[in-house]
Amino acid sequence: MLLRPTSDTDLDVFLRWIPHEEAMVLWTGPTFSWPLNRFQLEEYLTNPQRQYWTGIDETTGAILGHGTLLFDHEVRTCRLGSIIVNPGRRGEGLGRN
Fold first, then answer.
1. Distance, CA of 37 to CA of 55 (rounded, Å)
2. In the chain, which ranges are continuous DSSP H helix?
3. Long-range CB contacts (< 8 A, 24+ apart) of 66-70?
4. Could you give the CA distance from residue 69 to residue 10 in angstroms, rounded to a whole number?
5. What angle do CA 66, 35, 37 make, to 5 degrees?
6. pLDDT tens across 38-66, in order?
7. pTM to 2 decimals?
8. SS3 of 12, please?
């Protein structure tokens, strides 16, 4: 899997991966409100303390997943979060690569 910065064009794919409120909460907790929409995801991408990454299949270019890095420069830490994987590809060990 290759990582590239998340773009606005990825958002519609992520929306398809979140079919109901429970899936949304499992993904990001209370970050969003249901029904999830593109506007909320566009706002999500504006946090300057985060880096947003999209995982893509090296062969096909298909989007496989998404995650963020949240930086806290004051205490010099970084946290990985907001991880989501294409539902059709879950269980394949993509996170190990």
1. 21
2. 11-16, 21-28, 38-44
3. 66/6, 66/10, 66/14
4. 17
5. 55
6. 999 999 999 999 999 999 999 999 999 99
7. 0.91
8. helix
